Amino acid sequence: MSSKRYKKLPENTNELAPEKFDKILNTIKANCTTKFDESVDLSFRINNKQKKNEINLRTVVNMPGGTGKSIKVAVVCEDAKADEAKKANADIVGGDDLVEKIKNGDFNFDKLICTPSMMIKLSKLGKVLGPKGLMPNPKLGTVTNDISKAVLEAKAGQVEIRNDKDGNIGLSIGKKSFDDEKLIKNYNAIIDALEKEKSNLTIKGDLVKQVFISSSMGVSYKIKLEKSI
Q: 169-218, pLDDT tens digit by residue?
């Protein structure tokens, strides 16, 4: 059953013609009628049903406007890299001891970074890290010798682009309280990332079929898949 607040929001908005991202922002913010700082969310439907194989996207995007979230970063590394991780403000740093904690179910972090030499130890924990989306991956920049860069980028604001089996991608690009310029920069960064991923794929037709925008407790609108100024 919908709440009284939700019933006051516009109806059948996903039947409207698509608008440019920057043109719909004021409407999205006006629909943020809860008492907390709602997130601004995007939902993509991609053309993942190809004849030869399904499309599986997985990459990370650095958000120039930040995400408004505090990310707790853990680093698994050898002793020689521990100081570098701590200076970059990693929240948890360890070696074999941290691997053992993770093995025992201690997941007190949002992102896990490791050095290549420690990856062989973490790879044995794929069954516990994989389902949580925490397994470090070289493609995502979380298996690296440049620990400082990886930690700083994770802290500054990153989002992961990853489609589910039905071809849906959902992600947050900021908060209602963000000024429009920050949200536009983040949106453009996502579009750039998708265009880059498409260039690396063999795909018939468009990669993205539809894009929707909403606030976390609001209604959705279709938007045009193009960068905003």
A: 999 999 999 999 999 999 999 999 999 988 877 777 788 889 999 999 99
175: left (phi > 0), else alpha (psi -120 to 50), else beta? beta
DSSP secondary structure letters along 136-164? --GGGT-B-S-HHHHHHHHHH-EEEEE--
Taking the CA atoms of residue 107, residue 111, residue 114 and residue 119 in that order, the dihedral angle to the nearest 10 degrees is 60
Superfamily classification of domain 14-67+158-222: Ribosomal protein L1/L10, rRNA-binding domain (3.30.190.20)
What is the distance, to the nearest Å, from the Cα of residue 77 to the centroid of all Cα atoms in its chain? Answer: 24
- Torsion on CA atoms 224, 227, 228, 229, rounded to nearest 10: -150
In the CATH hierarchy, which top-level class contains the domain 73-156?
alpha beta
Q: Where in the chain is the domain with CATH 3.40.50.790?
A: 73-156
pLDDT tens digits for range 215-229: 999 999 999 988 776
User: Around 140, how many Cα atoms within 13 Å sit in the side-chain half-sphere?
Assistant: 21
